[in-house]
Amino acid sequence: MSLKQFDPRLGVKFADAAEIRRSLAYLCRPSDKTPVEAADDELWISDGTDVTKFLSTQVPYMREPLNCLSRRIYEAVIVGGPARSGKTKAMVEGWINYAVTQAPGDMLLIYSTKTKAEEMSKVDLDRCFSATPGIVKLRTGRKSDDNLTFKHFKNGMNLKLDSATETSLSASTYRYAGCSDYDRSDESVGQEGSKFQLMLKRIQNAKSSGMAMAESSPGRIVRHPKPVEQLGPHEVQPCGGIAQLYNTGDRRRFYWQCDDCGFYFMPHFETLHWDDDYQDPQDKAKSAHCRCPRCTHRIDEVQKQDKSLAGKWFREGAIDQYGEEVTDEDKIRQSKWASFWFEGVVATYQSWENLVYRYLTAQELHDSSGDEETLKSFFNIDVGRPYILQSRGQDIGAHELQQRAMAHPYDRGVIPLGGRFLIMTVDVQGGKSNPRFVVQAQVFGEGLQRWLIDRFEILTTPHRNGDRINPAVYAEDWDLLIDQVMQKTYPLADGSGRVMKPLITLCDSGGSGDTRDNKSTSVTELSYQFYNRLKGKGLAHLFRLLKGASREQDNLVKESYPDKRSKHAHGEIPLLILHTNRLKNRVSASYERAEFGSRYFWLPSWAERDWFDELTAEFVDEKGNWQKPERARNESFDLCAYAEAAMHYKGGDEINWQSPPAWAADWQFNSNVVDADQQPVFERQVQPRRRHSRGIFG
User: Fold this and answer.
1) Is the dihedral angle over the CA atoms 664, 668, 669, 671 positive or is it negative?
2) Residue 284: which residues within 8 A CB-CB, separation 6 or more?
């Protein structure tokens, strides 16, 4: 027996090197497919419940963006457009499929949050990887190589999924770096700066083989739009986020060609038309169709897919004003970033009927209430266009508003003619510097016109010999709200001696706290205690506590009951959760109106300049959220928003003014108007519990 051989009885065999080379030769196979070809051949994607075959013919507008991910002349690919249009499936799963099977290299994928990254890994990517044959062959099968945030493949490629943090975007080196839903999180990463610039730095060592990608529907608003004549032919209105990245690139837009005149045009939302003769928005939406902006040739939705299959992407300057192609490269925008933008008219999964219907209902809501939230969501998500803020409220100065108020004076502390119901609002200021209750009285009339008739502060208390109040420390200070706010009445302007009672009082439950005896105090706790005392007095129906939570809910006002998980309440106290951004949008829209009509704000001529400064102190940031500058006072704006919330909570938005409820009726029928010879009654009699017989068996 040779020393180079094992005894056959041991059952030991040498591995066959030739067989190993043949079985693993596919790992060294040179790239011979484009990303679109690789996706069309083998890629399977999640469809919400199972997997379905990816077909680029279903989303033809994603072919060129996907193929650009493999072109070395670009260092980045940017894609902006409407949500649910197939861009994420193509730019994320299609890109991963190409990288793993054709051009392996370490990849970093950034999501809006760590939780979102884990969710996508657990659902969408897991289904995709398990059903795509080319990826299945490259999975190692080891648990350590396949977890929620890290994937390792046989060809040596690593895939990491994370959120945009200083840790994830520093120190490591990748060949590919991509960001999904770019606008769903902040652009800056801590103190490091732009997350996209950090992504570019991570792939710098890969040189021309590296690639950065960002895709998203717009999530920033346009506060200061450019005039249309100052915009480039393909330029998106300037704002942050994905729109800013797109404008930095070569600005490609998707075009259709008219069958009648041969004119190339961008299928914007404005190319959709419908029959306005119908009254019902649903009937109008059913008549939706597209028209060529040059010859008005009609294009029906059944032609949309064929138009997109024949459609083309053009860089800025590649199409002239006559809709004809330009071949002179000197006139075409050049950039190392290939940037793409398209709108919801071409989106495969968005019907024109649904698009028009959502627009009509959103516009109707804005016109009737001044609420821009639904309209903003429509343009950002459905159309795929950065929303231009309609309200100019944050651009109107205090001086301008005060001058408008002086032109239409009315008396302080009097219910004006036309006023139907009175709402009191309280802002709680705790702490050591300036503790107080800030109170406003606001009257609403027919068509929800509103007047501010009083503003005052509660500073001292008779309970402690005129000492300064502190709502965060002393429970008895809250009792001042009963006499001075909840049971305060105002005379009618007709001189009859009649008075009007408040319909409801809303009070902030989250004022700043303080310390007492080296222990922290809670305004919230004392406010809850006050409400429980009101129940014993029969006054709880006239008072509600509130809390702002714009980013946590969709409803304008939501009534909740803090349960046993709260140390202050156990499900017995109603708490109104307010969408403060939407409420402040409504207030801004009301005082922005220059003409009389529905929801017009009759500004108080008797108010000092400070009140108007507080009303206009806040500004809207690029995400559409109202922000207060540091150290600025904004009590007027907050209290007006509370009054708007109280009006909505009581059903003011649904009032039929031909047959209003008793509390919103004319003075002679109004349930809250008290005759001069009568005393106002505020308490609600507590109904005794009836004892029922339990029968002859006890």
Assistant:
1) positive
2) 274, 275, 276, 278, 356, 357, 360
144 φ, ψ (degrees, to nearest 5): -70, -20
With tokens 């010879």, the residue in question is 677
Q: Element (H or E) spanning 129, and its range?
A: helix 126-131
Rounded Cα gap, residues 89 and 79, in angstroms:
12
Both tokens assigned to 441: 């009285």
The type of residue at 301 is E
What is the DSSP pairing of strand 176-180 with strand 211-216?
parallel
Provide the 10 A C-beta neighbour count for residue 275. Answer: 12
At 152, list the tokens.
């390792």
DSSP reduced 3-state for 451: strand
Query: 385 — alpha (psi -120 to 50), left (phi > 0) or beta?
Result: beta
The whole-angstrom separation of Cα 415 and Cα 258 is 62
Q: 287-308: per-residue pLDDT in tens? A: 999 999 999 999 999 999 999 9
What is the spatial distance between Cα 413 and Cα 493, in angstroms, rounded to a whole number?
Answer: 10
Cα–Cα distances in angstroms (integers) from residue 93 to residues 81, 126, 178, 466, 621, in the given order: 17, 11, 11, 70, 33
For 399-457, write each residue's pLDDT tens digit.
Answer: 999 999 999 999 999 999 999 999 999 999 877 778 999 999 999 999 999 999 999 99
Name the burial class of residue 256, with classes exposed (0-12), middle (13-18) and buried (19+) by CB atoms within 10 angstroms of its CB: buried
Q: Is the pTM of this model over 0.85?
A: no
Q: How many CB atoms neighbour CB 381 within 10 A?
A: 18
The token duo for 562 is: 């803090």
Angstrom distance (rounded) from CA 366 to CA 354? 18
**What is the 3-state secondary structure of 133-201?**
HHHHCCECCCHHHECCCEEEECCCCEEEEEECCCCCCCCCCCCEEEEECHHHCCCECCCCCEHHHHHHH
Mean pLDDT estimate for the chain: 90
Tokens 């990816």 -> residue: 54
Q: Rounded CA gap, 538 and 188, in Å?
A: 52
Distance CA 366, CA 380 (A): 16
Q: Is 566 exposed, middle or buried (0-12, 13-18, 19+ CB in 10 A)?
A: middle
CB 507 within 8 A of CB 426: yes
The amino acid that residue 441 corresponds to is: A
Grouping H, G, I as helix, E, B as strand and the rest as coil, residue 445 is: strand
Q: What percent of the chain is predicted at pLDDT more than 90? A: 69
3-state class (DSSP) for residue 669 = helix
Residue 521 has pLDDT above 70, yes or no: no
The confidence score (pLDDT) of residue 23 equals: 72
Contact 501, 672 (CB under 8 A): yes
* Structure tokens, 628: 């207060």
| Beta-sheet strand order (sheet of 499-500) | 490-491, 499-500, 673-674
Question: What tens digit of pLDDT does each residue of 593-644 get?
Answer: 888 888 999 999 999 999 999 999 998 888 888 888 888 899 999 999 999 9
Q: Report the half-sphere exposure of 202 (CA within 13 A, side-chain side).
A: 32
Question: Is residue 364 within 8 Å of 581, Cβ to Cβ?
Answer: no
Contact between residue 527 and residue 545 where contact means Cβ atoms under 8 Å apart: yes
Do the Cβ atoms of 379 and 404 come closer than 8 Å? no
| Tokens encoding 520 | 């922290």
Q: For residue 648, what are the contacts with CB-CB under 8 A and spacing of at least 6?
A: 556, 557
